[in-house]
Amino acid sequence: MSIPEFDGRIDLFEIFDDGFDRFKFPAEIYRVTSGHGGESFLIVGSGKTALYDCGMAYCADQTVRNIVQKLEELAASGRIRSIHLDYILLSHSHYDHMGALPQILDRFPDAVVCGSRKCQSVLRRENARKLIAELGTDARNLYTPQSTVPIRTDHLRVDRALEDGDVILLGKERITAYETKGHTDCSLSFLLEPVGILFTSESTGILEGRDYVHTPCLKSFPDSLRSAERCENLSYNYICLPHFGMLPQYFNEKYFQMFRQECHSKMDFVRSMMEEGLDRQEMLQRYIQRYWTPAKEKEQPKEAFEINSKHILNALIRAVEEGDHNHV
């Protein structure tokens, strides 16, 4: 079986020929991201505000400054009454998406942290906090090697455990949470209405090139494929992808097609290695060799990539052995 080679392109700023701005939203949403890691967006409703994800710990102070600066601008213009953050939405429990949570809560202690019930459980575990600290330290050492900023794990919590279909009201606007397992068991996607922006989770992929969608399905490829099908069938107008930003509307349908194709391509790749008789360590090394590129280091430490690759490979092996991908 011939498996096409992965070329490792990550050309995020040039991915669309029409000059599309992936951070220009059709609503009052502002990018407050700093450093590397997951994106962080300030959502301003007609009555309340929400922060979608927090980014990494090593650049948390700058993220807080970005949030405060934007809120001050909005308050000065009369758009909001006070510099206040009502909600913090967590897409899942990984260090690059919620590492800055302690510092954000220092500044906005009354903000209600919302995430899945599974996320709430994970953040209470000592071993999870230890891993978050370790990976956060690796990221700090990679991106700011002179920094000694502490990587905190206090205040890592979920105040409001969201069930599938739960709604958060921002005034006239509403945010609905949808369980989208696959990347983790605690992953949520969020739909902002009435504008119709779907903030997908990593369970349904990350666009990393004009013709490549990364499929970080750490827990289950069948679950991820089901999550993609569910998201695709929701009533939305726009898609905002993790680690990327907005997609142009004409790309929505193609994106989910690319995601499904890449999931099955990876399964074929793993099936071919299994047919060769490779053991798991040999398969892991070949997987890393195939999918790791220096360009990826702009977004995550190699140690984090290797940890994720081990989980992805295990999920792929399970999917191939159980044949679950034939039933999704």
Name some characteristics of this structure.
single chain, 6-stranded mixed β-sheet, alpha/beta, Metallo-beta-lactamase, Chain A, disordered N terminus, globular, 328 residues
Question: How would you portray this structure in words?
Answer:
- The protein is of the alpha/beta class.
- It has a single domain, classed as Metallo-beta-lactamase, Chain A (4-Layer Sandwich), CATH 3.60.15.
- The chain has helices spanning 60-76, 95-98, 101-107, 117-122, 126-143, 221-232, 252-276, 280-291, 302-322; strands spanning 29-31, 41-44, 49-52, 87-89, 112-116, 160-162, 167-169, 174-179, 188-193, 197-199, 206-209, 212-214, 238-241, 245-246.
- Helix 1 (60-76) runs parallel beside helix 3 (101-107), helix 7 crosses helix 9 and helix 8 (280-291) packs across helix 9.
CATH homologous superfamily, by name? Ribonuclease Z/Hydroxyacylglutathione hydrolase-like
| Uncertain stretches of 5 or more adjacent residues | 1-13
Largest sheet: 6 strands, mixed
If you consult CATH, what is the topology? Answer: Metallo-beta-lactamase, Chain A
| General form | globular
Q: Cα distance, first to last residue?
A: 22 Å
> Mind telling me the C-alpha Rg?
19 Å
Helix content estimate: 25-40%
Structural class: alpha/beta
Q: Number of folding domains? A: 1
Number of helices: 9
- Per CATH, the architecture is 4-Layer Sandwich
Q: Which series of helices and strands comes N to C?
A: EEEHEHHEHHEEEEEEEHEEHHH
**Strand coverage percent:** 15-25%
Mean pLDDT: 92
Extended strand count: 14
Record the strand order, biggest sheet.
1-2-3-4-5-6
CATH class label: Alpha Beta
